[in-house]
């Protein structure tokens, strides 16, 4: 009996250790990205007649780091830049609409800097990739369980789900890329 219990314990422990972290396996980021149909989109990126972004690549190389341009399977609901013809606030990221809460993946390898609610941004994750580069993920509905500042993450690792926390009117990811304190356009950076 004792042997059975020990065997069970070992099995359980091994099973836990071997369990993949969500998103570490099976992460599939679409090769193409579309602009959402049926929406009026500010700063819409260039697209072909099927609404696919032209010259799109899944990843970009930024200050030595490989980064996803869109770290979630979604469509673009707002581009980067000034809104409403310059009358609105400058949009320092890209909005990626998912409809339902959908897994978000770390844009690149790095260290989690913040996991917290930020004014306007709602539930937000910030990842530092190196001295110069950070990415930010806003309006989340939930964080990956146990995700904490100081955690190492790899590109494609699950970090949370899209949502509409903070100043958001639809379930989407607001994704920002900052290089040396300046926001970059994730869809065109590194070109
Ligand atoms: Zn946004």
What keywords describe this structure?
191 residues, mainly beta, Glucose Permease (Domain IIA), nine-stranded mixed sheet, three-stranded antiparallel sheet, 9% helix, 36% strand, globular, binds zinc ion
Describe the structure in your own words:
The protein has 191 residues and is mainly β. The protein has one domain: Distorted Sandwich (Glucose Permease (Domain IIA)), CATH 2.70.70. The chain contains one helix and 16 strands. It has one helix at 2-18; strands at 34-35, 59-62, 65-68, 75-78, 81-82, 90-91, 94-97, 103-105, 110-118, 122-128, 133-140, 142-143, 152-153, 158-161, 172-179, 182-184. It is globular and about 65 Å long. The protein binds zinc ion.
CATH-derived topology = Glucose Permease (Domain IIA)
Q: What global shape is seen? A: globular
Which value, in Å, is the CA radius of gyration? 19 Å
Mean pLDDT over the residues: 88
When the domains are counted, the total is 1
Low-confidence stretches: 8-25
Discrete helix count = 1
């Amino acid at each position: 009996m004792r042997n059975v219990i020990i065997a069970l314990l070992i099995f359980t422990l091994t099973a836990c250790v071997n369990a993949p972290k969500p998103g570490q396996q099976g992460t599939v980021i679409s090769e193409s990205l579309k602009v959402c149909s049926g929406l009026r989109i500010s700063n819409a990126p260039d697209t072909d007649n099927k609404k696919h972004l032209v010259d799109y690549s899944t990843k970009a190389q930024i200050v030595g780091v490989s980064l996803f341009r869109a770290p979630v399977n979604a469509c673009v609901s707002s581009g980067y830049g000034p809104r409403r013809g310059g009358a609105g606030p400058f949009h320092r990221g890209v909005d990626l609409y998912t409809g339902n809460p959908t897994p978000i993946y770390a844009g690149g390898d790095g260290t989690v800097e913040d996991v917290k609610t930020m004014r306007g941004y709602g539930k937000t994750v910030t990842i530092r990739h190196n001295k110069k580069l950070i990415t930010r993920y806003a309006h989340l509905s939930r964080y990956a369980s146990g995700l904490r500042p100081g955690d190492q993450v790899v590109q494609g690792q699950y970090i949370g789900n899209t949502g509409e926390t903070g100043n958001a009117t639809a379930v989407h990811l607001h994704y920002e890329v900052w290089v040396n304190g300046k926001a970059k356009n994730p869809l065109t950076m590194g070109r």
